[in-house]
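We both want to read discrete structure tokens more fluently, so let's practise on a single case. Would you write everything just below, so we can both look at the same thing?
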Amino acid sequence: MGDYTNMSGYYDLIMTSGYYDYPKIVNELVAGPGFQSVLEIGCGTGLILEELASRKHDIDITGFDLTEAMLAIAKERLSKFSHVHLEHQNVTGLDLHQQYDLAFSYGGVWYFVMDGINEPFLVSHIYDHQANMSGWERVAKHIAPQGHLLLGVQGPHSNYATPIRNGYVYSQAITPLPHGFNKQYFLDDGPHRLMEQSIDYRTYPFAQACEILASMGLVYQPSAANAAQFVSFVKP
């Protein structure tokens, strides 16, 4: 998993300045198949889980993340919810001793890029292929029979800079790699650079991603919904 230690102190500021629409993400989670237990794969600072936990009080909610600095923020944010449990784990060795009705990742470890024009593809925060295989295998083992895996949908990555709160400017730069791309994140306060983070991402064509997940027992479920927030897989 990508380590976001450098970014952790500014993550909430960037993400809540229009980067993600958290109520919309959770709307689709709660509108999907019913679940009594849910696992977020790469929960970051807990922004999605906070929205989910505030709406769903009668379910078991678990999140894990690799970056300890992010998880520390999540623990403080979610401490008011007794039905939320957080773990410091790497997805490649995930071991929670439990199966879940629903597991999801929205920009956490894996997600799909879809723009309605080009062929969709999966993006992984893990650049190494074998590590991805291990991660998918571990996640599949944590999904209960008839359970679902939901992977978020985002638009294409591009180079840009945009003003956010406090007069700061967030920017990102994309560089192609043999099996994916490198993404650099920057946050500037005038001439002063506040944060810089670099992550290598691996990409997989849509068909290959579905084939790999099917080999793990997770079958792609096409959706008729327009502008869906997630791509769905079910464990028969």
